[in-house]
């Protein structure tokens, strides 16, 4: 039996943590913050949430491309030659095409998430995959 299976078949499930009720959370907030601080905190929270929602929508949007079609390959090569594009490239970076058309793109690049970091806490539970 593998180490992973041994660890998960012999160990009893962990005790579920007590989740505070809504009343307990509200009471905790009331004790810690006065009304003005609560309003400011909620505004910051909503603003942060809205920014995160917009970022997630933008990062998962797949409608950032378009296709140009010609009736034959000769037209494609003629078009690409006139604008200094490589007709053998099936996919072109839009920023580079804009440069060839001598047009500046004002919209900034979207920063994609970086690689996920490994957690040392769960390293022993991870399956080993060849690199």
Counting DSSP E segments of at least 2 residues, the number of strands comes to 0
Query: What's the mean pLDDT score?
Result: 79
* Uncertain runs: none
Q: Sheet bearing the most strands, described?
A: none
* Helix percent band: 40-55%
Number of helices: 5
How would the global form be characterised? flat
Summarize the helix and strand pattern as letters. Answer: HHHHH
What structural class do you assign from the helix and strand content? mainly alpha
What secondary-structure arrangement, pairings included, does this model have?
Blueprint: H1 3-10, H2 22-32, H3 35-60, H4 73-83, H5 94-100
In short:
This protein is mainly α and 131 residues long. The protein is 48% helix and 0% strand.
